[in-house]
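Thread: quick sanity check before group meeting

JM: Hey all, I'm pulling together slides for Thursday and realized we never actually wrote out the predicted structure for the chain we discussed last week. Dropping the sequence here so it's in one place. If anyone has concerns about the input, flag it before I start.
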Amino acid sequence: MIRYTQEEKSFLIEYIPGRIASEVVEEFIKKFGKTISVSQIRSFRKNNKINCGRDTRFKKGSVPANKGKRLSPEVYKKLSKTMFKKGHSPQNYRPVGSERVNVDGYIEIKIADPSKWDLKHRVVWEESNGKIPAGMNLIFKDNNPLNIKLDNLMLVTRAENIVINHAGANVYKGIEKEVAVNAIRLKKLIKEKILNNKKKRGIE
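JM (edit): ok, ran it. Output follows.
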């Protein structure tokens, strides 16, 4: 580990901004006659939180230095094996219709290029019933998100889904879940009817 004198530290802090590490190394050796490496300069810059001040990002409107220039035969031969060839697909390309399981455990299906995916149970439902209305959720009767058969899917409102989860009905399966959902809907309907009757009596 190199130890810097106060003079060397002051020099580096002042000289580093706006310059690449190799340039700093060259000037440091010339000024102090002490051998130092590029990695040591980078470490000093990092440890002292010095911003090099150079923006190496390609800026919009900038023209690449090699624009319009042909590669030499030697360079082309070296790079040709890894070049992307017109008409070829990337190694990680997935064709339309491909499936995957996302981090939440739901099956996704690729519906369009270049990378448009949708939840498969939604696709299955919409193929038979049309577009899912806004504010509606699809749930699985057996609580298994991998079972995307049409008869295992049930359309509920978001409000109903919240009540289902809050009431613990999400643990029910099959016919029990259907009964639980219908009970929630019936309870809501009864409450609405009672409220409407009260309003009518109030008006009368």
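AS: nice. Residues 6-47 form one domain. The chain has a mean pLDDT of 83.
JM: adding both to the slides.
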